[in-house]
Amino acid sequence: MDYTEQLLIICPLIFISGFIDSIAGGGGLISLPAYNVAGLSPHFALGTNKFSSCIGTFFSTMRFVRNKSYDLTSAIPSILFAFIGSAIGSKIAVCLDAGILRYILIAGIPVIAIVVFKKKNFSNIVPKKLSKVKIITLSSLIGFVIGGYDGFFGPGTGTFLILAYTSVLGLDLLTSMGNAKLVNLTSNLASLIVFLIEGKVLFVVGIPAALCAIAGHYIGSGLAIRNGQKIVRPMLLVVLLLLLTKLVCDLSF
Fold first, then answer.
1. Residue 96 DSSP code
2. Inter-residue contact 235 to 177 (CB < 8 Å)
3. Which tens digit of pLDDT belongs to each residue from 127-174?
4. Burial of 214 (0-12, 13-18, 19+ CB in 10 A)
5. Which residues contact 6 (CB under 8 A, 6 or more apart)?
6. Which residue spans traverse the membrane (predicted)?
């Protein structure tokens, strides 16, 4: 497959993945297969995907930051403990078969989807009156658990962060999305540094893909900020469906 054909496959899909990821997380469910289909080797697909998604995520994160849609009291503990959880999850992944987690998720995702579907109005989330100590404790737990999931398995991490912040901490939807972006961006940067050091980023493909990712993230985050639950709720359901489909396919093949 020549360079032009690779870009014709990769660029549109990276734009779509960036658009979805900026709204509901889960963009990697589309972007990583795009690089694989275009013929990149597994390590270069992972590294180049991390490069383009990291740059795209930075732009959508900055839109949420400029809109002041974040909460540092809960985001900072989540970021710190997500690193710890991710490291532990990665170690566990070396020893255990991820198939066990796939079965658990296949059973659990439909339940999560039903909860999201029945929750007609994310904008009517009642803020929970939690002490600062409780917020930090719960945020740390969210970061540790979902960071561990990210290190062990990965797909849909941003989606689960959004759902955790809204349901556990009672944060409004946009603040939850902003927090999820900050956590994801930080962990993605750490991972990207490793791939750059190892020389596993194909820049000739990654740079055009990154431009498409920027466009997708910029447009998607703008729509999310303006329209809130009107676009976020259906997109969450789309991501959960994509994740469920991936899990079933992984077990089937």
1. S
2. no
3. 678 899 999 999 999 999 998 888 777 778 889 999 999 989 999 889
4. buried
5. 38, 39, 40, 205
6. 7-32, 44-65, 72-94, 100-117, 133-152, 158-177, 189-219
pLDDT tens column, 54-100: 999 999 999 999 999 999 999 999 999 998 988 888 778 667 676 77
- Lowest average pLDDT, out of 99-113, 138-152, 229-243, goes to 99-113
The per-residue pLDDT for range 173-229, each reduced to its tens digit, is 899 999 999 998 888 888 888 889 889 999 999 999 999 999 999 999 999 998 877
Give CA angle at 39 (33, 44), nearest 5°.
75
Q: Give me 189's structure tokens.
A: 């940067």
Distance CA 183, CA 178 (A): 9
What's the Cα-to-Cα distance from 64 to each of 31, 220, 235, rounded to whole Å?
Answer: 22, 11, 18
Candidates 93, 40, 105; CA nearest to 250 is 105
Separation of alpha carbons 217 and 21, rounded Å: 7
C-beta atoms surrounding 52 within 10 Å = 31
**DSSP code for 26:** -
Neighbour tally for 194: CB within 10 Å:
11
Side-chain half-sphere of 57: how many Cα atoms within 13 Å? Answer: 28
Q: Which ranges constitute the DSSP H helices of 157-202?
A: 157-167, 173-197
Q: Hey, what are 158's tokens?
A: 């941003």
Distance in angstroms between the alpha carbons of the first and the last residue of the chain? 25
